């Protein structure tokens, strides 16, 4: 089942992007671009959720709604 996980992305002074989440403890991902950071964050989140789901239910993560807004990052 897909769940919605909010993450925070910030550009560090070194020029890389850092992703963290208040909703999923331990999620930290870093990449050269926003897209790369999101891909790494998704992989880390899946592994953390898999490890946690063996111990407890993940009711704190919201199921995906029928409709939702998604900020699409585009570049030129």
TrEMBL record:
<protein>
    <submittedName>
        <fullName>Type II toxin-antitoxin system HicB family antitoxin</fullName>
    </submittedName>
</protein>
<dbReference type="InterPro" id="IPR035069">
    <property type="entry name" value="TTHA1013/TTHA0281-like"/>
</dbReference>
């Amino acid at each position: 089942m897909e769940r919605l996980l909010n993450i925070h992305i910030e550009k560090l002074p070194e020029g890389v992007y850092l992703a963290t989440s208040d909703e999923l403890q331990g999620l930290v991902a870093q990449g050269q671009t926003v897209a790369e950071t999101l891909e790494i964050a998704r992989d880390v989140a899946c592994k953390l959720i898999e490890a946690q789901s063996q111990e407890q239910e993940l009711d704190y993560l919201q199921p995906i709604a029928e409709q939702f807004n998604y900020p699409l990052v585009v570049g030129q």
